[in-house]
Batch of 4 targets.
Target 1
Amino acid sequence: MTANKPTIRYYATIQGQERTVDITEAAAGGITRVELDGQPVDADFVDLAGASLHSLVLNGHSREMVLARDGAKVTVWLDGEKIDVTVYDEVSKALSTFGAAATGGASVIEAPMPGIVVGIPVNVGDLIVAGQPVIVVEAMKMQNELMAEGDGVVEEILVKVGDTVSGGDVLVKLGAAPTDGEPSTDGHAA
């Protein structure tokens, strides 16, 4: 029996309405399950020509689909009808909300979804600034830099490169940034 890959959730905004799409792929490739807003959908998706032309079978109806992607913005031509969509995966959605609430106090960096730690560009005691990469997690074949929400100091790194993490796991603990002329050296034992 072949195991499935983890289910990936996407958030698609179409004409101002946000929809969730959960896709489960078989380990050997191919879609095994699709849910739209929590409801199962009979769907099959096949690449026909490169990265843009696809065949979509949706609830037994075959549709031709052309995709043009520019970051999170996707233009979809479905049977000739143009539809503008904004699509975020869970990591992108989580990262977009991190920047909205920048702080300068103690905080933690959590894994927004399951993945593997592939880089840790900081060390305990390092001073960091808002937006600085603190840890890199690979999820869904993409490397995602998790950034500091605000200025601070790295207090504790709870993982190492190669560790598998689950969504919500605390990866790094950050402390408040030193204030007014405090030395930048770390007085803590590593």
Target 2
Amino acid sequence: MTRRSALVLTVSDRVAAGTRDDASGEALTARLTGLGFEVERRVVPDDVPAIAEAIRAAAAEHPLVVTTGGTGLTPRDVTPQATATVLDYEVPGIAESMRAEGRKSTPMAALSRGLVGVAGRALVVNLPGSPKGSIESLDAVVPILDHALETLSGPFDHDIERAAGRRDLPPGA
């Protein structure tokens, strides 16, 4: 069974500076706790290296890393760029599902640039910075979350080196 721990990473200059409450981080923590996760929280400013390092460190410790904030269109919204530097590969269907669910409430959900992907054996999910948008997006993932985490935790039923591109290996090597 997958270890049920998650990190909620709030990406916000103002929350990091202490001039704004972390409403989205609080809402996500409550939702994930209700789903049975032990949740750790961290905050970083809107800075690509800081975001990337926080995601990288969290992915080494938790099977689920959820970011909130920095997915919009402003020049300071850099969470997807930072996330892309850490991911081994993207899982675009999950991000598409989140945006589709959000469009049921507002057409503005299509403006979210959040990514979803895998870093090591962790699932990394970028969510919007608003409490409502972050919970709606997370809830779009909930039906497949356990299966995704179980799949990533292994064991794998195929040759890892072969999956990583080592086609030169004979079967069973």
Target 3
Amino acid sequence: MKKLVVFYSLEGNTKFIAQAIAQSAGADILELRPEKEISSSGFMKYFWGGKQVLTKEKPELLPLEKNPHEYDLIFIGTPVWASTFAPPLLTFFSEEKLRDKKIALFCTYGGNAGLTLEKMEEKLVGNEIMSRIGFKEPLKNNPEECADKAKEWAGGIV
């Protein structure tokens, strides 16, 4: 079974968890990268990120380095922005239209996960959602423990 971890990360939290999952699952990694990235520092990141979410923007992504349609099991991760997934995921979902895949969803957040995982699931109709999990600020809240939790979760799915 071919496995892939697809994720977007602005501040590194989601990337940290994605790498732990990939290591545990023996999966390839596909990082979604917008052509124009917002700044990851200062208050304006909240303004621009929130604006993108509220206006349902689909930022242009750099070409994907892997074809997700070639994989059987796909882990998909995002930071939580305005109680939902980050806009690069909206672009990914609308362009790739995954079907008949086994999917596991994860998110990283500062406040709470909101309805992020449920909203991701809505975009993935026609796939089997295996599991979902959230991580609160893993780079600040005991990174080693969060990485172990991510590895254990991924190992249980594989």
Target 4
Amino acid sequence: MPEKTLTIREAVKSDDVIIAKHLCQLALELGVTSDSIRHDWLEKTTRFIKRARDELCYRGFMAEINGQVIGSASCQILELYPMVSEAYQKGYIWGLYVEPNYRRQGVATKLMDQSVIYLKDIGCTKAVLHASDTGKLLYSGLGYVESNEMVLNLE
């Protein structure tokens, strides 16, 4: 049997649909009901990626084993309000997804490592993400700490 070789590569534009599908699958696995998924989710997500690539230094990363995509992660500058100093720039990591058969094998860690390297390269001083309950173990093991973000439920 041939050895499985994991490769992490930068995503190209043609990967945007795969990244969008991973994001939708992630939402479903986190408990979002299929009837609540937007009918235009694919177009909306690929349009978001294009805008993020054009305006927010977006970069995606793909995990492949022997040429088959098994995971992806996305990152970009986090710009919620005007930044008045270049000394403090947050980056945002989102959409980390690994196919179920390849989980707990270090794939997510390698995708996160590439994302962090890229965010540092573009001058980010902090990396921010929102973790699912299952993802918290991975992220805390990588050095992420819970922040002072506060949320008000508007429902």
